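Minutes, methods subgroup
Present: GH (chair), OT, SY

1. OT presented the first of two proteins processed in the latest run. Sequence and structure tokens recorded below as shown on screen.
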Amino acid sequence: MAKSTLNKYEAHHHFEWSSVVAGTIIALAITVVLMQFGAAIGHTGELDLNADDLTHWHVIVLGLWVLLVQIISSLSGGYVAGYTRSVSPELSPHVNEMRDGIYGLTVWAVSTVAVFIATSVFAAITAIYSANTDGSILPNELTDKQQNAAIAAAFALGATSFLAAAISWWAAVMGGYHRLNNEDFDKKYMFLK
């Protein structure tokens, strides 16, 4: 490989964490706002296994709400990461697309881990304060209906997380495409004004 070619690729081998941090902060902020809005209308993002009227509709509504939150957050965070990444027009379109996608996927991963840590800390604190005198958290065993609802909810949350990863990848690629082509949204969407 020629020295000039090597320098061209070496210049873009660093990873720009600032783009990932910006996308992650935006994704997490949107998640918090939407979850607060959801809590205000009765969608807390949690499945109450002790509810008297637990039905499969509770699981479906929870899954749809979390899916909506993850789609909007992943689109926003991924797009920001892809758009704010440094321009590298000398690289092939495929390499640019892969790098943008990796930034979006990293935003999704960092956001997911941050939400997991926050949820785990909150659950641990809640468990400490709500433990019964004998140390058990639940007063009785879960019924079959409750176990099925918990399994379905866990599966739905996992599936929406994988979908959110793909959406974040796509949004980052679109952000990179718009950055590389100097997309002017002011002229493109003047009819909205």
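2. SY then presented the second protein from the same run.
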Amino acid sequence: MSGKLLKLLTDLKEQEALDFVKNALEKGVDPMDLLREARAGMSVIGQKFSSKEYFIPDLVYSAEILKGIVKILEPHLKKEEETERLGKVIIGTVAGDIHDIGKDLVVFMLEVSGFEVVDLGINVPVQKIVDTIKETRSKVVGLSGFLTLAFQSMKDTVEAIREAGLRDVNIMIGGGQIDEQVRGFTGADAYGKDAMEAVKLAKGWIGG
């Protein structure tokens, strides 16, 4: 690929990006290549977000552009290509906490990076997370929490996963007040300071 679509997407040029995709398809460019380049563009946008060059409104706008690109590509993609995923990630805001802005941002960045995300929502009971690991066989779990009371819920969740004999999963935690000390307290494998760090962790554990 020329990298043109990547640049148009990262520059947030919506109409130009959509027109480029349409023209590329007419010229016989592989739609899967266009989808991969669009995903690569989203990774760059995520990096710009991490470096505070872009902010949440920019991420939201880029998501709308990506949706438009995918809508154009969908009729040209084989079903198996359309659903190509790097792996499955379970994510939820732990019991006692109802904050979801940060979680939703992580879900969004994981999805556009090629992961299938099982979003359990907010105030998720410990047993629900354990059951979902059993059902999905996912190897990555993300626990989100904003309130300090979430720390104990995270610890309880990690313990329950261990007691269920499922501690071969990789567990990452994240939220406004999470740091390395909290990670140590909960027993999680890692903490992500932002959505792009979560993507990096998931890729490192699953591959891709």
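Chair's summary of item 2: Strands lie at 88-93, 116-119, 140-144, 170-174, 190-191.
Next meeting: continue with the remaining queue.
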